[in-house]
Write a structure and sequence with these properties.
- With about 375 residues, the chain is of the alpha/beta class.
- It has three domains: about 1-70 and about 75-100 and about 325-364, no CATH class; about 110-200 and about 285-290, 2-Layer Sandwich (Nucleotidyltransferase, domain 5); about 205-275, no CATH class.
- It is built from twelve helices and five strands.
- The chain has helices at about 35-45, 50-60, 85-95, 155-160, 180-185, 200-210, 225-230, 235-250, 255-275, 285-300, 310-325, 330-340, and strands at about 110-115, 125-140, 140-150, 170-175, 195-200.
- A five-stranded mixed beta sheet has the order 3-2-1-4-5, sandwiched between helices.
- Helix 5 (about 180-185) links the parallel strand 4 (about 170-175) and strand 5 (about 195-200).
- Helix 3 packs across helix 11.
- The longest helix is centred in the last third of the chain and has 18 residues, at about 255-275.
């Protein structure tokens, strides 16, 4: 049997069953907090709450709030010590995430990354990267596939990220990240799989072309600008735009050297991918950018707190489940109680992934 907390409630708030004082929430032996409170704290950080705020909520729910220390000693509110929840992420998040993340890449995949720079503390100026993958199994229903943190954004890092799942996507959309595109060529196709179609994000294509067309920004009726409006919709429109651009550069009064260089480098690639363009998509990485923006909002002002790579990746796994609507604190509490039962009520070892002092794995 799992140990239970003493309770001052006379009835269960969910089913109205009468409770004896010894029938409080179950939890791990020698733990001050029940599985219910741990599950709720993990759900809070999965939604983007800080470790400190989640710890404060857990302490209030368990009646474990501590008195504020005054005088010459510790002045920070001890109820806002986030190490409590950080330890739960480190040791208990693997239990609630087990079997919840997909093991194979989807047919249609979009990839992107974002850099998080540390702006204060002993490691100010250093940074880490969060890689994101969004699958498009159903039209209009993108799903976060994986999130993971890496010290750098190299070809080897991308290959490690792509190794998180088995299989080969049928279609992969990226931006102009050369390291990522090289990693895709090296990682796919897997054995007995067909080659993946690599596509450039149309949103980034339009941004690059807008920059190359800057000399014509004040001439919306110029033939090149008119042909550009629908150039990225299909192959024929693109052919007309490219032909008009090269004709205007050769014979027009306004040469477009930047546009010509861009067409020489990417024109054939764009023409090829427009031949197989599908309205089902994805034709851009907008969904991935939206997810990374939410991660950025959650990490705002506390990037310097994330030095342990394993712990941060466990947090990102929790956030992945939240983005997909699978972060249920009650179900997570049930999974924790089930695992504790088979362990004789003993919780996993705390802080199993600590880094050597002064050598954070995420920044080394």
């Amino acid at each position: 049997m799992l140990p239970r907390q003493a309770t001052s409630e006379h009835y269960c708030v969910e089913c109205s069953t009468r409770l004896e004082r010894w029938e409080g929430q179950a939890g791990a032996r020698e733990y001050w907090f029940s599985a219910r409170e741990v599950g709720r704290a993990l759900a809070l950080v999965a939604a983007g709450e800080s470790y400190r705020q989640a710890a404060s909520v857990a302490r209030r729910a368990a009646g474990r709030s501590q008195k504020r220390l005054t005088g010459n000693g510790r002045r920070r509110d001890p109820n806002l010590d986030g190490q409590l929840v950080a330890n739960w992420v480190d040791s208990l998040a693997p239990i609630v995430c087990a079997g919840e993340l997909p093991g194979r890449w989807p047919d249609r995949l979009a990839l992107d990354s974002r850099e998080f720079r540390i702006d204060r503390g002993a490691r100010a100026g250093e940074s880490f990267h969060v890689f994101a993958a969004v699958g498009h199994d159903e039209p209009g229903r993108p799903r976060v596939w994986r999130l993971a943190a890496f010290p750098r954004r190299t070809e080897a890092d991308w290959e490690q990220f792509l190794a998180l799942c088995a299989g080969t996507p049928r279609l992969v959309v990226t931006d102009f990240d050369k390291a990522l595109r090289k990693a895709l060529v090296g990682a796919f196709p897997r054995a007995a799989d067909r080659a993946a179609e690599l596509r450039l994000c149309e949103l980034h294509l339009r941004r690059r072309l807008d920059n190359a067309l800057a000399p014509l920004v004040d001439e919306p009726d110029h033939p090149v600008m008119r042909s550009f409006r629908h150039a990225l919709f299909d192959h024929d429109n693109w052919s007309r735009f490219e032909a008009q651009a090269r004709r205007s550069d050769q014979h027009g009064a306004l040469p477009l050297p930047a546009l010509m260089r861009w067409l020489d480098n990417y024109g054939e690639t764009v023409a090829t991918q427009l031949q197989t363009r599908s309205s089902l998509g994805p034709n851009s990485i907008g969904a991935v950018e939206a997810i990374l923006h939410q991660v950025e909002r959650a990490f705002h002002g506390r990037s310097q707190s994330f030095g342990n790579r394993t712990r941060l990746n466990l947090l990102l796994d929790l956030m992945t489940l939240h983005h997909n609507g699978a972060a249920d604190p009650l179900r997570w509490a049930d999974r924790l109680r089930e695992r504790l039962y088979y362990r004789g009520g003993t919780a996993p070892h705390q802080r199993p992934h600590d880094d050597p002092l002064g050598h954070p794995s995420l920044l080394t």
